[in-house]
Structure formats: structure tokens, C-alpha cells
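Weekly modeling sync, notes
Attendees: S.R. (lead), two postdocs, one rotation student

Agenda item 3: backlog of single-chain predictions. S.R. asked that every request posted to the team notebook include the full sequence so nobody has to chase files. The rotation student volunteered to paste the first one in as an example of the format we agreed on. Action items at the bottom.

Example entry:
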Amino acid sequence: SPEQVLGYVYAVCWSPNYRIRHARLLKQDFPRIPETSSVELIYELASLGEELMTFHLMESSKLNDRITTLLGPGDLQVEKVSYSDETVWIDKGKTRGFQGVADEVWNFRFGGYQVCQKWLKDRQAKGGKNPRPGRVLTAEETNHYQKIVVVLSETIRIMGEIDEVIDQHGGWPEAFQTS
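Predicted structure, as returned to the notebook:
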């Protein structure tokens, strides 16, 4: 089906080994999608790609399975973003934040941005000539940030599974040989 083809392409593009192998080309050109004669590989990657898309579109039912806990009293005003001991702090005193953010999730980058940090920094207090206080996160924004953490955690998990499936079929480039 068209959805399976898109799932296959999506999975290949999110393969960590694919991104490493083709890093230079990906910066200069459109991604090249390798063909394979293994129908089993196509179906397995399509399934993983479809699952990954549901997370990236924030449509997965698993988004409500929180992996973070809110810490601290009072409003969640984003004063200064920092990270330590699997906790994303949003105040200078490190009394309010989101606990349960794994190092690999905090450090995950997409498009050159560290996703968990960037989302909060866009809401952080600003100093200088035109200072402004940090935004107080609404319940909806807090919920959204916690979903972002789930999306990143699941993205990392699925990326690992994509490479495992490719390895089970011969690895790069053997899994993509057509005969």
C-alpha cells in the first residue's frame, strides 16, 4: 500500500547507520532510498516507519504514557533552562522542572537543534535591552512538553530497532542488494 511504501522510506531515512553512511550526500541532495529484493525487510521497515510517523505526528496512543514527573511548587515559569541528573530545570534555583528525561533524550538533536532544550529556551526569560520574563507554562504546554519527551524517547528506541532489522537482513549495504 502507499502507506507501507512511505513507512519503508521513513524508516530508511531514520536509520542511524543510513544517516552516518550518507551524511555528506544528505547535506547536498535529496535522500537516495535503497532498493531491496527482500519483501520481509520491506514489511518490517514499513511497520517501524509507520509507528515512527504516528509519534512524529503526535497521533500515537502511547503519548499519554508519561515518562516525566513535574517537580516543584507554584507556576512553571521558564526562567533559565538547565539539565542535570535526568531533570530538566526551568528556574535558576533548580526547584521546578521535569524529572525523568534520559541523557540521550535531552541530547537528541534534529535539524541542528537540541529539541528538549530549544522548545523551553524559546519560552525562557530574556535579558538585555528589551528584557522580558519567562513564560508561565500552561497545563496544555506542560502536557505538550511531556509528549515531546515521549516522542524523542520512542524515536530513539525505534531508530535502534530499524538498524537491528537491517542487521538481521545482512546489514549495510548487503540488505539492500537486489538480485
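Discussion: group reviewed the output briefly. The helical segments are 2-13, 16-21, 23-28, 39-56, 103-106, 115-121, 139-168.
Action items: rotation student to repeat for the remaining queue; S.R. to check formatting next week.
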